[in-house]
């Protein structure tokens, strides 16, 4: 009788309805099915997802060093908490400077040659390139104000050299 009471208690906890009236088991099964179905995992559920373009070791030269505008390269990793926290800030700054400065991301664990070349030991790191040369470098988590200040420096210098 004691075992039966424990079983009933466990079963009532597992199937106890939540605020919408559906049992918790229903949600658990739905999550498992979704996780197993190809394409069901949407980008919004991935905290490292960003609409910013990715650059790699193989296209770094063309995408960054040969670019016709300044490029801010974000060295990041999906396991880096600060990198993930900065995704919305980077996207907002990218929109703010669209057409003047391009912001690209590069995963340090998948592109070790570029990370080593620029001596990136830990993400996040921000390297600003202008006319194929490293212009400025910032390491660690940055605020939106810090990023815009960094970008404004290259925009001001670029405008100044264009006027000369």
UniProtKB/TrEMBL annotation:
GO terms for biological process: cell redox homeostasis. GO terms for molecular function: protein-disulfide reductase activity. Residues 40-156 form the Thioredoxin domain. The chain crosses the membrane at residues 21-39. This is Thioredoxin. It comes from Gimesia chilikensis. InterPro entries: Thioredoxin-like_sf, Thioredoxin_domain. Belongs to the thioredoxin family. One of its GO terms (cellular component) is cytosol. It comes from the Bacteria. Keywords: Disulfide bond, Electron transport, Membrane, Redox-active center, Transmembrane, Transmembrane helix, Transport.
